[in-house]
């Protein structure tokens, strides 16, 4: 191979490296463009509309509020008309409904489940036991409110709260989602 052929072949290897550098720069700029476009009002409304009507809750049940959650999921109250579909998988859920008394041991597991949930994620504290410890607030092993270790979005008071109260809490959460930003960190 002559020197002129080697000189011609050298620039052919550089375009691949130049292309890779160009793609990295383009992808970085593309991320900024996506953030700018998505945070515009019309697209933000469409994305939040999708989030509002596709809440997949996981209910963490330790006491009598589970009967009220079951009643709200039944045919009479039908949470599915609000876009709430109870799902079996914890990692695909984006809404945690904490019902009942939470012990110190349970708090660690709830935090672990919360950390594994899909982002954005929301928490509803349902019932007096999960909001303030309930009847057992002065016990050594009871957490006096889920808000001590999880960011709670909506509180549904009552002992136990009626299914209508849970429906109202879901509507309040949907209103909060409707007015939220798509990217919270920006």
Note the topology.
Elements: H1 3-38, H2 41-52, E1 57-61, H3 65-73, E2 95-99, H4 104-116, E3 122-126, H5 128-132, E4 154-156, H6 163-178
Parallel strand pairs: 1-2, 2-3, 3-4
Helix pairs in contact: 2-6, 3-6
C-alpha Rg, in Å?
25 Å
β-strand amount: 5-15%
**Which word captures the global form?**
globular
Distance between the termini: 56 Å
Uncertain parts: none
* Tally of DSSP helical segments: 6
> Pairing-aware structural class of the strands and helices?
alpha/beta
Largest sheet: 4 strands, parallel
Number of strands: 4
Mean pLDDT: 78
- Largest sheet strand order: 1-2-3-4
Query: Helix and strand string, N-terminal first?
Result: HHEHEHEHEH
Assembly type of the chains comes to single chain
- What percent of residues adopt helix (DSSP H or I)? 40-55%
Brief characterization of the structure:
By secondary structure, this protein is an alpha/beta fold. It is built from 6 helices and 4 strands; from the N terminus they run ααβαβαβαβα. The termini are far apart.
What does this structure look like?
With 186 residues, the chain is of the alpha/beta class. It is 49% helix and 10% strand. The chain has six helices and four strands; from the N terminus they run ααβαβαβαβα. Strands 1-2-3-4 form a four-stranded parallel beta sheet. The longest helix is centred in the first third of the chain and has 36 residues, at 3-38.
Question: What are its keywords?
Answer:
186 residues; alpha/beta; globular; single chain; four-stranded parallel beta sheet; 4 strands; 6 helices
